[in-house]
Design goal:
By secondary structure, the chain is an all-alpha fold. The protein contains 10 helices and 2 strands; from the N terminus they run ααααβαααβααα. It is globular.
Length: about 270
């Protein structure tokens, strides 16, 4: 039997992604930006649910010794749904209902076109990335080739739900540029630090544990107990993923970069 217990984690990943999209679709009925913003918030929370399940599928597979090729392919498809397709629905809601781009107050048709374009970028780039890696698989221990889809989806979700995005209208335009940039980074051949097969030093383990704890405790204290601002978890996520995007690559040696460049030299032919 192909489907095993550990694949239930992947089902949870897909379910979280589809819930993200479903909440965004429900948000299209909102009559004010404030109402739409609430749907954007809960759509983002569903993305966290998807990521939690995604984080545990490998752990469960190793504990139950159920790792197989079906699981790897199933997980890859789940990531396409949760981190490429689902964010497109949320982004369309953001730029169609939740915000009005500065300078386009009297040009709703232009904003509609931007909403459509922004909503398409991650799904299209994700599908291209998926197809490319199906044709030409390349596993480099401890690295991702191109910015990983989970990180790009969480970065987008964090940005549009952050306090900065809510209080600064100029950030609405920054968000458009950010989506374009992440879609391009999804398709790039730039190596990024990955967790598969990587041995972390003791101090990096401390940092990584601090990262997930700040987000997890912010969700619990903000959403369930209302002790801290509900959006604090998104603020932390945006901060940590910004470090990963702009600083994390510096940990990759020049020799490794040259090797990746050699391995991918014919990918864009």
């Amino acid at each position: 039997m192909f489907f095993k217990t550990k694949d239930l984690m992947t089902v949870g990943n897909i379910t979280g992604g589809l819930a993200c999209a479903a909440v965004a679709m429900e948000g299209m009925a909102a009559t004010t930006p404030a109402q739409a913003t609430q749907y954007v918030f809960w759509s983002g929370m569903m993305m966290f649910v998807a990521y939690i399940f995604d984080s545990f599928d490998g752990v469960v597979a190793r504990l139950l010794k159920q790792a197989n090729q079906f699981g790897a392919e199933f997980d890859n498809i789940a990531d396409l749904v949760a981190y490429s397709i689902a964010p497109g629905f949320m982004l369309y809601l953001v730029y169609r209902k939740a915000v009005i781009l500065p300078g386009l107050e009297d040009h709703p048709q232009i904003q509609l076109l931007i909403a459509i374009l922004v909503g398409l970028l991650l799904p299209v780039s994700g599908c291209i990335r998926f197809a490319r890696f199906q044709i030409r698989k390349l596993d480099v221990q401890g690295l991702w080739i191109g910015f990983p889809r989970p990180a790009s989806a969480l970065a987008i979700v964090a940005l549009v739900n952050s306090h900065l995005f809510q209080i600064s209208p100029i950030m609405h335009w920054v968000g458009v540029v950010f989506v374009f940039g992440l879609a391009a980074m999804n398709l790039s051949l730039v190596p990024f630090i990955g967790h598969h097969g990587r041995k972390w030093s003791w101090y990096l383990k401390i940092i990584l544990n601090f990262v997930w704890m700040t987000v997890a405790f912010s969700i619990v204290l903000g959403v369930f107990f209302d002790v801290v601002p509900k959006r604090l978890a998104f603020d932390w996520t945006l901060i940590w993923l910004s470090f990963y995007l702009f600083v994390g690559w510096t940990d990759i040696s020049t020799a490794t970069r040259m090797e990746v460049k050699r391995l991918t030299a014919d990918w864009n032919d």
